[in-house]
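Batch manifest, entry 17 of 40.
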Amino acid sequence: MEKTEEIDIIVNHPKKAINKLAVPIIISNLFMMLNNVIDGIWVSGLGPNALAAVGFVTPLFLLMVGFANGLGAGSNSLIARYIGAEDYRNAGNSAVHSMILSVVVTVFVTVSMLFALKPLLLLMGAGEVITETMSYGTYVIGGIFSVFIPAMMAAIFRSEGEIRRASYPLMFTAIINMILDPIFIYALGLGIAGAAIATVLAGTIPMFLMMYWMFYLQDSFLKVKMSEYKRNLGIYKDILVVGIPASLEQVILSSVSILMNYWLTLLSGTVAVAAYTATWRLVALGLAPLIGIGMAALTVGGAAYGARNLTNFKIALNYGVKLGLISSVVICSLLFIFAEPLSFIFSYSTDAAVLSARVIECIRILCFFILLMPLGILAGNLFQAMGKGTISLGITFLRAFILEIVFAGLFAFVFNLADIGIYLGMVCGMSVGAILAYIFINYYLHKHEDYFVK
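Output type: structure tokens
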């Protein structure tokens, strides 16, 4: 099996590879995040209760997305390492294992979450809007296959440099959802349930396109053929060694978000939850470039680690951080400056007008959450690239579950800053955690230089 141009760039030209891989990922992520914002805009027209209902379901949905992306990260890391080591047979076999694993996990997660959905939502404090929340959540969780399967296929395409096939379907998903949202919510009169149905359909249609490329056309570097499947439990283990910790990272992030929603409900009611939900969609939009750079660095770093090339690995880390910090400074500035006009997109209806002042306040604090995040994202993704998923998990646990919660609780309850304290605490926790993560990965590389000596 001869190297393609894409494989050569990933293995031998790390800066060029990050630029080439990151741009399509960033564009597709921007569309996906923009889709979340537009979804929120349409739902906010139904009133604060509907937006709060989406806010209660969102952490669970993001938990599922994170689980899917975690498994994808495990697959991406393993395949990239095999490609870096020029073991193309195991790279292809790992892709087949990855698809089988994603189907099994999808079935298990869907059934489990549907049974647990209502008790979880009530536990999260959604009792006041439980009818709207269940209307939205049942469809979203029931259609989670439209997230899991495409996430794994995207990871496989990304690991071999097929970045357009990894990214464009996500872009199509966002565009389709933007079109379907007003139709299902208002034209068909389905309300908040219509938003959920639109989300599932929008993910399902591009999924079939990816399946056509992967299983029928089969013109990529790696061939995913069940006829060539050779079961290797070690491959499943290697995927899960990164995939499970990466998925648990999202469990941590979702748990923190659930706790913040609960604290906001106690401190200021469901209006505060709605304002936080609206703002977080804008913050998530700002995270798209950082996530794209991090995912590109994971592929490049995995190949460098497989080839035992310390120079290229450090380039993936530091060049990724440089690009990320430039992006985060620009994004943070734009959010802060344009907070007021941005707030109006969630408060255009009479019922939602009360949100405007709260959203402005929230944006001008949470925009700083983005500022130092590249340090943490790149450190975590590069540990995943090395197959050190538990270390990446530990970094996320320290940053989100300890630092963000401690700072948020301190500012909100001890200093009596209420919802403002929640936002300030999240910013402080993220900033301190990201700095510590970047320091630690550099220390780790220094202590393990011997591995890179061939």
